[in-house]
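re: ur question from yesterday

yeah so i grabbed the chain u mentioned. its 295 aa long if i counted rite. heres the sequnce exactly as i have it in my notes:
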Amino acid sequence: MKLSALLLLPVTSALLACAAPCEARTWTDTTGRKIEVQKWRVEGGMVILNINGKDSPVPLAKLSKEDQEFARQWADEHANTPTPPSDRADGKADALHPAKLPNGDVVLDHLPAPPLEDEVRNYIPLSVALVLEKHFHWPADILALAKKMNWQPDRTDWDQAKFYNAIGKETHSRVLYSDKLDIEEVIRAINKGRPVVVWRCWEQTRDTALIAFEKELKNDPQAKLPSARDEAERKKWPKEKNESTIITSMIIGYNRQRGEVMLHIPYWGADYACFRMRKEEMDVSGYAFWFFEPK
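ran it thru and got these structure tokens back, copy pasting raw so excuse formatting
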């Protein structure tokens, strides 16, 4: 029997998200059916049961009165404990399930930080690969692989494309390349917990404007980026590889309703942790996309 098959009815309980370590427990629904799980948590009026490595939310209203009382009491006792990312079946932290927010954002919001070695701290292309190494739990040593391929901290002519292909072989992953934005492929990748590496034309003033909009959106959920059909807006988009700086970024989310993608640049501070642009701008400014598919 799977409690996850129960209908997810709205629950108005004000239970806080809780994340203290919890022991295996048998849960009972209103019909008397039972299920024992090793991992679970209480979050937003739901008991989140980890079944076969996947989170299955069950509303309190679908649980027995005894379990409802237990969950509420447990939540009260652990109300100040922060919520961690979901757990994998093997016990490793799971960032492979994107957060789906009420505003339509679907974003990988638990990306790990790359190691803080001085020699790679300011080298974005390698930092991106190190983030992927931790995100996918690759057994390979990506930094050692880079050094083996003659990478040096001050080298700017390093063959990154060849490096990405080498990562694929080293980690037994598929590495797919595209020179154009395929938004549906990006969406499929994000839904599977796979950030997309992108090379894009970059200008400081443009990213500064996008970051300012991200802050505006937090204060005004109705705020919108200018229309992609606005000629004045389009003129602000970096789009010439030979006339602007090239930067490596990660696409870590999307909003289908708003027609936006979310970007992340490791080590560039909180402002660059997650900001958005219209997919039309990414289609113009992005010119190389890598999709990593771990096996």
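noticed a couple things. Confidence is low (pLDDT under 50) at residues 1-21, 80-94. also The two ends are 30 Å apart (CA to CA).
anyway ttyl
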